[in-house]
Design goal:
This protein has 289 residues and is mainly alpha-helical. It has one domain. The chain contains 14 helices and no strands. Helix 3 runs antiparallel to helix 10, helix 6 packs parallel to helix 9 and helix 10 packs across helix 11.
Length: 289
């Protein structure tokens, strides 16, 4: 679970970098994934890892991860651009609720009392931390608030994140982490080509692209995909709640943002849900990367 937790903490800084760049979401995604593919390609080609999957059904299953991840990431980035970071995070982390519903059907994972309690504690903590009631959120959606499109994108990104977790768990037995990250990023990059404006000015966003390419598109997914070999889909989704906690702490440390009492209480509830998840390890051992 340490792999997943570390990846989530790294991803928690994503919103800050997205807001730093004037580039559209899809351009940031394209160049960060391009950089990741360049970084990973020597390792993949040198070890001949692609040959292990070429021409097999396993390879086709791995290719599906790319489009799913693209929709998940794009809608989450879109939410960051068109609503507040708090609203984007709040709507995106409906994912554990979707996973809790889907995992028993697609992965035959039991929805235990521990998992249900973890989801409820983390969800309640998130509402408290972001200082928004369910009634306020529903009212904003129903009245067509200016942030509605961004929040709708966030909810859909949460659903797609849940689908991604389910798919990753279904291929975890044979998944090679480096190959999977490489294929995911390559597919995202290729799917974005028709929408690219290659005349866009990049100099002002070079640092953002470098950080996103190295940290958010390479290191974090490698750690996450490695970690998901060892845990159930429900536990992986619940650990994702560490992202908003990390985002608030990073804002406090690096941006001087205020750490409110509600944020502290909500964060502690999320950490408690993580503790409930971690104290019972999943069975079985995962193959090496």
């Amino acid at each position: 679970m340490l792999y997943i937790t570390t990846a989530i903490i790294l991803w928690s800084s994503l919103g800050i970098f997205i807001r730093m760049s004037p580039l559209p979401v899809h351009i940031l995604m394209f160049y960060s994934n391009l950089l990741s593919c360049v970084l990973l390609s020597p390792f993949v080609l040198r070890r001949g890892l692609m040959q292990q999957f070429s021409g097999s059904k396993k390879f086709l299953k791995l290719l599906v991860i790319g489009p799913i991840s693209l929709v998940n990431t794009f809608t989450f980035f879109y939410a960051y651009k068109h609503t507040t970071i708090a609203n984007a995070i709040l709507t995106h982390y409906t994912a554990p609720l979707f996973v809790a519903v889907m995992a028993p059907f697609f992965l035959h994972e039991k929805l235990t009392f521990r998992i249900a309690a973890s989801v409820m504690a983390a969800s309640a903590g998130l509402w408290i931390m972001l200082d928004m009631s369910a009634a306020q959120f529903a009212d904003m959606l129903l009245k067509g608030h200016s942030n509605t499109v961004g929040m709708a994108a966030g909810i859909f990104s949460g659903f797609m994140y849940a689908v991604l977790v389910i798919v990753l768990r279904s291929v975890a037995v044979f998944m090679n982490v480096v190959v999977t990250v490489f294929l995911q990023n390559m597919m995202i990059m290729l799917l974005l080509v028709p929408f690219m404006d290659f005349s866009a000015q990049l100099p002002g966003s070079i640092i953002v692209i470098l950080v996103m390419g190295i940290v958010h598109s390479t290191l974090a997914p490698v750690l996450y995909f490695r970690g998901i070999k060892d845990v159930t889909a429900n536990r992986a989704a619940i650990l994702g709640y560490f992202e908003p906690v990390g985002a608030i702490l990073l804002g406090f440390v690096f941006l001087g943002e205020t750490l409110t009492a509600k944020a502290a209480i909500g964060g502690m509830m999320i950490l408690f849900s993580g503790w409930l998840t971690i104290i019972k390890n999943s069975s079985g051992t995962a193959p090496d990367v």
